[in-house]
Amino acid sequence: MSEGIEGIPQTAEQETKGTKEDKEARAAQEAAGVEQTGVSGAAEAAPATDRADTDFVNPLRDPQDRRLPRIAGPSGLVIFGVTGDLSRKKLMPAVYDLANRGLLPPGFSLVGFARRDWEDQDFAQVVHDAVREHARTPFREEVWQQLAEGMRFIPGDFDDDTAFKQLRSAVEELDASRGTSGNYAFYLSVPPKFFPKVVQQLKKHKLASAPEGSWRRAVIEKPFGHDLRSAEELNAIVHDVFDPEQVFRIDHYLGKETVQNLLALRFANQMFEPIWNRSYVDHVQITMAEDIGIGGRAGYYDGIGAARDVIQNHLLQLMALTAMEEPAAFDAASLLTEKLKVLKAVRLPQGLGQGTVRGQYAAAWQGGTKVRGYLEEDGIDQSSTTDTYAAVRLQVENRRWAGVPFYLRTGKRLGRRVTEIAVVFQRAPHSPFDSTATEELGSNAIVIRVQPDEGMTVRFGSKVPGTSMEIRDVTMDFAYGESFTESSPEAYERLILDVLLGDANLFPRHQEVEESWKILDPIEQYWATHGRPAQYTSGSWGPEEADEMLARDGRSWRRP
Amino acid sequence: MKIDLTDTTASKINKALVQGRRAIGTPAVGMVLTMVIVTDEENAYDAIKAAEEASHEHPSRTLVVIKRHARTPRDRQSSRLDAEVRVGADAGTGETVILRTYGEVSDHADSVVLPLLLPDAPVVVWWPVDAPEVPSKDPLGALAQRRITDLYAVEDPLETLQARVRAYAPGDTDLAWTRLTPWRSMLAAALDQARARIVSAAVEAEADNPAAELLARWLEARLHVRVDRVVTAGPVVTAVRLGTENGEIVIDRPEGPLATLTLPGQPSRTLALKVRATSELIAEELRRLDADEMYAIALNGEATEETPAHV
């Protein structure tokens, strides 16, 4: 009797779990405006295979056995636009580094797709050169051999049906010869205007729907649209073919160790979280500065600008991680819930003219070289109003942050390349020292240095050695390079591995992307109809208007 | 920067460390652990080199204890401690202190080491050779969270292995086990793909190889099948065969860093399975400093018996 009772609830529970997943999958599809045909087969098959998967427990794996690394299951990676810069400098080296660290499954396959008249060997040579030049870990012949066996190249255009037929047969051939088991990630390293074409082709040639027991994932890079409407369109196009759960949006900042450490810092420690609120924090500054200009990217950059290029994705993500409440668990769903809550609570400044600043870099000497201004760059119209610098003041309207401004700024041709999150604290409510003693004392701050020199700085006052009482700011440093590994993995390594493992923690979901556009769209609209960007000297820390914006609030920018 | 101290004490060494740090201009340090290496003069060079390389991943204060044997009875009477303090570029990313003990102080090396440990940071002891019978009861071993021994460096590995089983305390670990990690992770990955019940198993290795014995014990403990041990010409572990109902899963590494993986019903493919350098093994050891429960399980597994290869 006891056997029967024990048996029944278990099955019932499993079934409810199954139908719940089904429902969620369907709801997600409906939300994205997806028709039920085509994708539904894959979505329905997924829970069933999940159940079959849980039947087999690998006896060689054990949670206690933490030496065994997380190795991706049998799988392959298909890169569209494989001849591009990103692919050569980041993706291919990252794949090699993963293989070298033993984190790729035996039989892992890499398929390149581009408009080149290449054979498999030519492609292997290109990858070889890219790896030699850009990989982080030393080149080892045996690792290379293991990888090279699984490399294929498909020449062709995105509307070339034969090429996609070839891709399909290559995928099937790899399943048979390399045991990739039908698991493929499609990395769309192509300009967004090609997204619809590529995903439609994948759908048409049945590459996007996973055979039972396997997965097909799409990996896309920014920009995720240029405003809310285009982002929604883009999401609809991709979700029409891939299940929303299987779409991975790369924001490489989230793959950085420091950004992940921000969560460890906040939620694994006791000493920071109690002061992480409006009672102690005066304001937060999030900066992403580049020292380079637009280079040869005029075509992409003009009309987009710094705010769309950086604030919409990177800075708002960093802000969400800084401001969010503790997630219920460290998993994709809980993180999404908390990040969305923060993004929805963001309020724009009352007067957009007062609370936002944009600028364009002007010709000057920067770091010892003479550089051109934005308007003099090749391919840029003299009357362009594209912002190469943007700063905004945002408020997060919730109990924790009410009244604490978040200043976000980004720009090109600034003093140096740096990304950081600075949480600046209020001054001590009362000082027993006289004002001359604390004349040189600033505000306490915790600074998360995202790049370069990843780590964290705590800034506080300390007595200057000597007879009189004089207090001055000092900093205490934690550097990743110093305290842990000299060679922490590249962001792309981590993110590619996560895609293959299906771990979506570090990837923004489409809801976040859309919510971020809702924050930025009014600002862009205001800018489009009001005035022109201010000019700032290349190599400085931005236009004077930005300093004035903080001065009005009685604050000033940090020099990062 | 190097500071030599002759006939010295722990407090003078501490002063020299602060002095050295001041001189190179980094008074604050971000070291994460203290590594104590107990060795003889002959093995010191290689061990220090490995530790310095590993310190790039885990910046640490390395204390090298070298016990010197005096040749004359008169020298044996006197007790002396010499030290060489290295900071900055001479010491990887951390600090290294080489302690040479003469005479009686050799038996009380822990009294020198204790004041030199980093505050609060974990302590790891590594014996590249001549590990004590019971590592956790050794005066230096008792200071440490983690005690690293090496079965490859003993005269009779399999017999010593049995002694380690009896002496095991949480925190013990052995480089013979560390060497297996790539094998074990590839076997686990292979089984992830094959998704089949294992009915038989065999480990092929050179004779008297302690890593092969640990691998066999681990497989037996996890798979609950009898594991055959086949003696081959080596080097080290050359192959592992796991039998399923549909055929064998084989990882075969006859020589060199390239192995072949065969799964039932699938074509074979190559994989990189390199024999790693000591510094890499030490770096792996330092990644986790709590007790390695899986090592305990493997260590306590059924002993297996070697059979010659049936060629």
UniProtKB/TrEMBL annotation, chain A:
Catalytic activity: D-glucose 6-phosphate + NADP(+) = 6-phospho-D-glucono-1,5-lactone + NADPH + H(+)
Transferase among keywords: no
Annotated active site: H314
Binding site for substrate: H252, K256, E290, D309, K412
Domain Glucose-6-phosphate dehydrogenase NAD-binding stretches: 78-261
All residue ranges annotated as the Glucose-6-phosphate dehydrogenase C-terminal domain in the record: 263-558
Entries under InterPro entries matching the protein: G6P_DH (IPR001282), G6P_DH_AS (IPR019796), G6P_DH_C (IPR022675), G6P_DH_NAD-bd (IPR022674), NAD(P)-bd_dom_sf (IPR036291)
Region called Disordered, residue ranges: 1-68, 536-560
Keywords from the named record: Carbohydrate metabolism, Glucose metabolism, NADP, Oxidoreductase
Similarity field: Belongs to the glucose-6-phosphate dehydrogenase family.
PANTHER family tied to this protein: GLUCOSE-6-PHOSPHATE 1-DEHYDROGENASE, GLUCOSE-6-PHOSPHATE 1-DEHYDROGENASE G6PD
Protein name: Glucose-6-phosphate 1-dehydrogenase
Lineage, top ranks: Bacteria, Bacillati, Actinomycetota, Actinomycetes, Kitasatosporales
Gene giving rise to this polypeptide: zwf
Automatic annotation (TrEMBL), chain B:
Residue ranges of domain Glucose-6-phosphate dehydrogenase assembly protein OpcA C-terminal in the record: 170-299
Glucose-6-phosphate dehydrogenase assembly protein OpcA N-terminal domain: residues covered: 51-164
InterPro entries linked to this entry: G6PDH_assembly_OpcA, OpcA_G6PD_C, OpcA_G6PD_N
Entry protein name: Glucose-6-phosphate dehydrogenase assembly protein OpcA
Species of provenance: Streptomyces cahuitamycinicus
